[in-house]
Amino acid sequence: MIEVKDLSKDFNGKRAVDAISFTVDKGEILGFLGPNGAGKSTTMRMITGYLPPSSGTAVIDGFDILTQPIEARARLGYLSETAPVYPEMSVREFLLFCAEVRGFSGKNRDRAADDAMDRCFLKNVVHQPIHTLSKGYRQRVSFAQSILHDPAYLILDEPTDGLDPNQKHEVRQMIQAMGEAKAILISTHILDEVEALCPRALIISEGRIVADDSPEKLRRQDPDYGACTLTLNNPPPAGLMQELSSLGEVRKEHPDRDTNTAKLHIRPRQYQPDLSSQIEGLCRRSGTGINELFISQGRLDTVFRMLTTPKNAA
């Protein structure tokens, strides 16, 4: 388990991370969300021991990163935001070097490097100097160094930053496969990545945790969760509008000028799982045909903005 205990960090008198605490269990992929400057990377650097906290600590598999740093770091794999590599080395040379630093030697060193290259799809650039690689391949090389010792705990800071859609898909597949047996903490501001990978998401804003829940439950905080967008074949009669208003707030939206359709947005006063069937029944009884009906499942980006926008912002 990764245990973060009241971690704080001050820079020149300004608090960047403010007494945050959370855990990540083995077999769990936790998405660590926040706007730029919220404290995500600073938190990860403290967890991995690269940055000393002003107060608090992190414990990796029972080892305190401050008092037992060697034991704690030996159990961690860390992909930093900047993907550090030695550009003059070839891919294989770099990973062999990293394996030696991790304590591997001889055939075990070769096997660790080869396995990491296989898992990160690097075999076709194994002898290529790192400085000649694309950003996507450099990211894969850095990913490979973070897993070559098969750590039980992975800290990944923006693992798909700068990758094209195909590369992102490959990296996400690797993370999902490893997430079955490892505890993985992923820092990102890509919301669809969290929904694709993470059963649990933690949102940080101005150095403080403002949410910790599943993406599905977070979406339910969207004011439009459970709301209905309805397109009718004809303008609704007054009686239907009155009956729809009994279900919640009804707002007319502008239809396509070239059609005679009407578009309505209905936000119930409280969540109603049978809202669509109620609306269909009212329309049927009024003789009004439905062209389209959509029930909102909530949007994570809306909730993210609600939780991370300063209260005094315009």
TrEMBL record:
Q: Which UniProt keywords apply?
A: ATP-binding, Nodulation, Nucleotide-binding, Transport
The record's Pfam families line, in alphabetical order, gives: ABC_tran (PF00005)
Gene3D superfamilies, alphabetically?
P-loop containing nucleotide triphosphate hydrolases
Q: Which PROSITE patterns match?
A: ABC_TRANSPORTER_2
- List all membrane-crossing ranges: none
- Family statement drawn from the similarity comment of this UniProt entry: Belongs to the ABC transporter superfamily.
Q: What is this protein called?
A: ABC-2 type transport system ATP-binding protein
